[in-house]
Amino acid sequence: MSNKFLSAVPSIRTIPGVDVFDYAIPEDVTVAVGDVIRVPFRKKELPALVVAMSETSPVAAKAHLLSRPDPLLSLGPVAAQLLFDASRRSFTSQPSVLLSWIRTIPKRAKTIPSGDQQIHAQEQSTPIRETRFRVDRWNDERGVLAEAKKSRGRVLILTPWHHRADELAARLGASVLHANVADGAAWKAVSTFASATDHILIATRIGAWLSAVADVVLVDEPENDDFKSDELSPRLDSRWLVAKAAQLRPRLSVIAFSTTNRLGVADTKQAPTINVALSREPWKRRWGSQIDLLSPSSVMQIEETLKKNGDAWILHPISGDRASLACRDCGWAAVCSFCSFRLSQNGRSILCKRCGRKGTAPDECGSCGGMDFSRGQPGAEHLAKQCATYFQSDRIRVIDPMEFDRLAHAKRTTDQEGACHAPLQIILTDISLLASGVEDIRRKERLLIAWRRVCASAVVLQAKFHAQGHEEALNDCADWLTTVGVSTVWETELRERRAFGYPPAVRLAKLLIDGSMDMAEAIKTELMGVLPQTWSVEGPYPVEYRSYTRVPRHIVHVKPPVTTSEPELIDALNPWKKRALIDLDPIAFFS
Description:
Blueprint: E1 3-10, E2 21-26, E3 35-41, E4 44-54, E5 64-65, E6 73-74, H1 77-90, H2 94-102, E7 129-133, H3 144-150, E8 154-158, H4 162-172, E9 175-177, H5 183-195, E10 199-203, E11 216-220, H6 238-248, E12 253-258, E13 277-282, H7 296-307, E14 311-315, E15 343-346, E16 349-352, E17 358-360, H8 380-391, E18 396-399, H9 401-416, E19 424-428, H10 443-460, E20 464-469, H11 471-475, H12 483-500, E21 509-514, H13 517-530, E22 536-542, E23 553-559, H14 566-573, E24 581-583, H15 586-589
Parallel strand pairs: 2-5, 7-12, 8-10, 8-11, 9-10, 11-12, 13-20, 14-18, 14-19, 19-20
Antiparallel strand pairs: 1-2, 1-4, 3-4, 3-6, 15-16, 16-17, 21-23, 21-24, 22-23
Helix pairs in contact: 1-2, 1-6, 9-10
């Protein structure tokens, strides 16, 4: 009996360019493009995605014969095309991308009878493609929950954080997929969703590729940068995966639920006005408060709330005891011996927030011998201890923005279930900290989005909101809550980005080169000699805070004309994918 051949992408990390492998199968065996099967690979048996079928193969004489390639799952041809496009855009091998998608498949995973599963979108005469700007994104009659309940077919909800995924899954009685889900449970969630006719799956960015088999995709918080992958994974944005899947599948419905439109992406006049009960208070020197970082007015508002049996949430984005371990006498600051980043303090422990290394705090200053390390800004742990001592109440929480988001949804659910709605006072210690302390050009953009998100949650919770901070930071924040205010800021930002040549006003690609400055300069010279003269190449710029045990890293920026298409840009940079990490996403420029 003659054989035919299939081309498969194994789920394993490989270098760019090592992508597809051919296998022989008997003539009477039926396998389709998009099927997930097991294949022998380097003395192992790995899951693989079938990406092509053919009658011949250039390696026919050496092709391994698969006698029974029973499918574990059928994802359809769109998944194979999405894998190819994702690999091409991220300059990563297809096997590496597939590994990030399906993770580990249990050895006892059941196969499906060939031909039993059909992947196709539900018939929809008018697919939905829109962004809904809502103050209450979840509980609104046109929000996430309402849309998920009325949708039919496979409904994929993408949200940026684990706790949001868990909360939505609990509210909808749905399955969940994120990095904390064990491999077996993750495979069950993927296989159940892909093979079902009616099913809801809540996922973080690791499940965005399932847009290839979904009927409806609901994107929660599409403006959030947490959708961006890091450099250890294929550098893909969930929003790009959803958009590409929508191009490949015209019947796919996509609805994004947002508080604030992304800069340069959506109509600036669609961001809703947020009517929060807001008061503002500029910082003052020596305002004589009993609690660090809280003004007497803030303390008074907390006391009044406690008298009414209400709750007080103090929003403070600095974790630990101190933002940095710094000497009060001479200003010396302890830095990480591995990556030279400033160390934060929590009790007797110290932590590097860049590389994650931990240690024990020194007994004295490394410069002057002093023992007072209170120069660093107080953290949440320090503030919580002071509040517990001063207020003597368990109705006060000192929380960071992530914990605030989790508690806000939990409290909203409790209130909806009929519990007594106690007064809630929210105190923000420093508005500028909502931007994560970054000093890059995106600072105002990050701050505006985070500020509106927090205020929207306060509206949903019917809470009073008191914001502290430097006068300059507080001046415009009330206007940012209005539709006109957002439009004004975004227009100004785009004008400034255009003047200085920054995304999203211009197209930009980033190349990260590991090695010496001379090596980076050589690659820059090669780029300038090959790329069109209308393109500019800038750099190389050294990456700061690299550990002494790691090779130096440099960044080169490539700026083509705005009219350059993405395929043209990919083709131009493809020759360097084995010598540099290449990122086409403007977000990465600021990360």
